Amino acid sequence: xxxxxxxxxxxxxxxxxxxxxxxxxxxxxxxxxxxxxxxxxxxxxxxxxxxxxxxxxxxxxxxxxxxxxxxxxxxxxxxxxxxxxxxxxxxxxxxxxxxxxxxxxxxxxxxxxxxxxxxxxxxxxxxxxxxxxxxxxxxxxxxxxxxxxxxxxxxxxxxxxxxxxxxxxxxxxxxxxxxxxxxxxxxxxxx
Length: 191
What we know:
mainly alpha
């Protein structure tokens, strides 16, 4: 456990990519088995664990405040696995702003719930402000769960264009979340 805490601090305090890789190597296999037990899909489990570790890197500056990183990663993996199943099911499509934040973000305090709500609102603002094609691609992939190939076919564009549009959308969302606004002051979000 001490090793895990050292890695956690190295990532949080120094943005240490080596520590991040070590953390991944230490926990990814167990997390993938755990996710597979929920998703029943090797590819899905790999995607879920990858997303969980991306989330860890994105929030690296706040990692020092997490008391049990392993538990946090397992909870995140569980939630992402359930989200993966929901996306793959034939249930009616629900867009992000129609879903209560509490149903997919674990909050332990009113403050965390408020932050989660503000985060969802920020994402929603960025998505609504995307150029038309970029917004359509993002919504088809993330909200409707279509594969890049399916989106390309539906919009009559190349898979490469879909990939590029998703990169643009995720960068804009990431920058908005990093700076806490949709367009950071003095920082143009480029395509």
